[in-house]
Amino acid sequence: MSQKTYKVRNHKKIEHYYTLVDNVGEYLDLMASHDGRTMFVWKEKGEGHEITYGAFTDAVKRFSLGLGAAFAGEEKSRVRIAVIGETSPRWFASYLAVMAAGYTVVPMDKELAISEISGFLTFAGISAVIYAPSFNESMEEIAAGHPTLKLLIPMKAPETEAAEGIHRTSFDEISAAGEASGAEFAADTDTERVAELLFTSGTTGTSKCVMLCQRNIFTAMKAACQSVDFNKDDVLISVLPLHHTYELTCTYLAGCNFGLKICINESLRYLMRDFKEYQPTGMVLVPLFVTTMYKKVLAEAKKAGKDKILTGATKAAHALSFVGVDMSRKLFGDVREAFGGRLEKIICGGAALNPELIQIFETFGISIYEGYGITECSPLVAVTPYYKRKPGTVGPAVPCCEVRIADGVENEDGLTVGEIQVKGGNVMLGYMNNEEANATAFTEDGWYRTGDVGHMDADGYIAITGRMKSVIVLDNGKNVFPEEIEEYLSDIDLIAEAVVVGREEEDGVVLTAVIYPNYAKYPEKAEADFRDEIQKRITALNKKLPSFKQIRKLEFRRTEFEKTTTRKIKRHLVK
């Protein structure tokens, strides 16, 4: 869908009420000021629970005091505590409590292999791990003989005794010790120390360990509050993993600044149930979830024999939007009801989103605001303003940082395309124990090199076109960003996934599409039919592309591409 046929609503700019805090102590005071308001709603084995802001803040303080007692006498800078497990209030409480105690918190990806988790814990020099019940057995296996791990802290005490030689104290026991200590709570105020370590997802190879300070974390949080259309009356559903800075910053840290309610999704299989029960007004998502939501709408429409009606209504609503007529609530009441009836806004980031989905959701009456970030920037860099949206962009830089396009070259549209570089309070301290990576991560004048490529208009709105490391350099000197070609391929419904690579052939570099066909959608099709029809569609696509961007070779695979836990294809593994 071209930008000329892509219409979105620009909503009225309104005053939002949030507090500008600079450290975890001020943040806890802010949460306590929301006292009687419900903070979290969640289920455990089908049983509902909730906690208020006041009760949650007290729990954080007790646990933080208990951690201080557990590591009394230790040099604070050497105490690093990992947090791992499913999203829960105790996960978030642990994150804040570790930071408040003056220690370094290390959020861990629960989907990693145990061997990888153990390796990361060793690299970071972890002193303790706070973990969900799903890790009861594996954490004791890791702890046995681990060089630095001194203490295991299960969020819920296991029924079995700890193995011999394993020091284990539960979350409740540490909290009780903190309460009994009689010590006065005083949160750490050093905004420049290493407060958090984050392992990058490693889509381009070996993972690196990002060091963030409190200034980085709370600068990004404030920028999120200044940039999104949330308020104290909003209800959010949390579905993304909490170890990821995107969810942690934009849903949790920013959301709780407003004093809104966060409903935690227990499992994706219960998501549609949770929509109806919690009736959210907003969500923070990655493109995969937006696509999944739309597929569920289509599946339900097809089941009811209304898929053609839905398609026709979408086109009609889109056309009417150009003359200022909003038919979303009248035409798509059933669709909106499936999402709880109140969903109005989705902040989407982490990867490129098919622009057609933005338009489709817009016709449903649900606005999607794209953002852009990177772990090294805590992670927020840019967000589309709800009051001034521009199709095809991720918005301008958020208030805490500057963005520039460096080493740019003019493309065929007259736009200067180059590396996106960032400077501001959200930019990391550096990579832990990796001087080589640090040397290449920053320019001589102090700008962080994202490795992402894009362009910026006169208003500062940024468009992402690809990654420098995935750039394919053709023999004629032309640079091709595979993500751009992959976006075209994503519009072909016969293709489930595609990665574009440059193959070295006798005649030079050949632009090649590695394709995983959409077997699930078309189970009746034979392999030969898939190949023939996809070839025809790509031949038609090539006629619309400049010659140097045309796909010259196809390769097919029978299995999905390997992905990170945030559902990004591991491009470096595509051989």
What is the alpha-carbon Rg in Å? 25 Å
CATH class of the domain at 24-28 and 42-190: Alpha Beta
Which topology of the domain at 24-28 and 42-190 does CATH recognise? Rossmann fold
Binned strand content: 15-25%
Low-confidence stretches: none
Q: What structural class do you assign from the helix and strand content?
A: alpha/beta
CATH architecture of the domain at 24-28 and 42-190: 3-Layer(aba) Sandwich
User: What is the number of E strands?
Assistant: 24
Question: What profile does the largest beta sheet have?
Answer: 8 strands, mixed
Tell the overall outline: globular
Count of helical stretches: 17
Give helix % range.
25-40%
Cα-to-Cα separation, first versus last residue: 31 Å
| Sheet with most strands: strand arrangement | 2-1-10-9-11-12-13-14
* Mean pLDDT over the full residue set: 91
Describe the structure.
The mean pLDDT is 91. This protein is 33% helix and 23% strand. Helix 14 (355-364) links the parallel strand 12 (345-348) and strand 13. The two termini are 31 Å apart. Among the domains are: 24-28 and 42-190, Rossmann fold (3-Layer(aba) Sandwich), CATH 3.40.50.980; 478-573, ANL, C-terminal domain (GMP Synthetase, Chain A, domain 3).
List the helices and strands and how they pair.
Blueprint: H1 24-33, E1 38-44, E2 47-52, H2 53-70, E3 80-84, H3 89-100, E4 104-107, H4 114-124, E5 128-131, H5 136-143, E6 151-154, H6 171-180, E7 196-199, E8 209-212, H7 214-227, E9 235-238, H8 245-258, E10 261-264, H9 271-278, E11 282-285, H10 287-303, H11 307-321, H12 328-331, H13 333-338, E12 345-348, H14 355-364, E13 367-373, E14 380-383, E15 401-410, E16 416-424, E17 430-431, H15 435-441, E18 448-456, E19 462-467, E20 472-473, E21 479-480, H16 482-489, E22 495-505, E23 508-517, H17 527-542, E24 553-556
Parallel strand pairs: 1-10, 3-4, 3-5, 5-6, 9-10, 9-11, 11-12, 12-13, 23-24
Antiparallel strand pairs: 1-2, 7-8, 8-17, 13-14, 15-16, 16-18, 18-19, 20-21, 22-23
Helix pairs in contact: 1-2, 2-3, 2-6, 7-8, 11-14
